[in-house]
Amino acid sequence: MAVDTDLLRKPRWRDRVSTTLELIRANPTGRVTLKVAVGLAGLLVVVLGALLIPLPGPGWLIVLGGLGIWAIEFSWAKRLLGFTRRNLRMWTRWVTRQSWAVRLTIGLFGMVFVSTVVWASVLLSFDVNLVTEVLDRL
User: Fold this and answer.
1) Do the beta carbons of residue 57 and residue 47 sit within 8 Å?
2) pLDDT tens sequence for the chain (138 residues)
3) 49, 57, 54, 60: which is closest to 120 by C-alpha?
């Protein structure tokens, strides 16, 4: 059975991006400009994600996106992103091997944690206690 090598190749847009980055890095000014641009773009995305972490939503995903942007130019970010991916995969595999009761318990603890973070962030940001507000409306 022959394997089609075209299916194993990177998509063409990745080739174009790699070629463009190589051309930019070939020039000393381009190399510095690229590092600064990637550094600032990654910083902006990481800060935005960090601000969104206490709120419900994809805060950590946005932080990882910023780390991915940094990984374009910085080897430390590439290593940290690889470390994060490996540990996330290990955690996911471990959870999927557990019984439904353990997964349910993990999910409940996760919901309690997120609820506590939302409650605390609303209380500290807007001075509104969600628990008393809900109890007053019942």
Assistant:
1) no
2) 555 666 566 678 888 888 888 888 898 999 999 999 999 999 999 999 998 887 777 888 999 999 999 999 999 999 999 999 999 999 999 999 999 999 999 999 989 988 888 888 889 889 999 999 999 998
3) 54
Give the gyration radius of the chain's Cα atoms. Answer: 22
* Per-residue CA distances from 40 to 19, 27, 49, 67, 77 (Å): 22, 20, 14, 12, 14
42 C-beta neighbours (distance < 10 Å), count = 21
State the CB neighbour count (10 A cutoff) for residue 122: 16
Domain map (residue ranges) of the chain: 1-97, 99-138
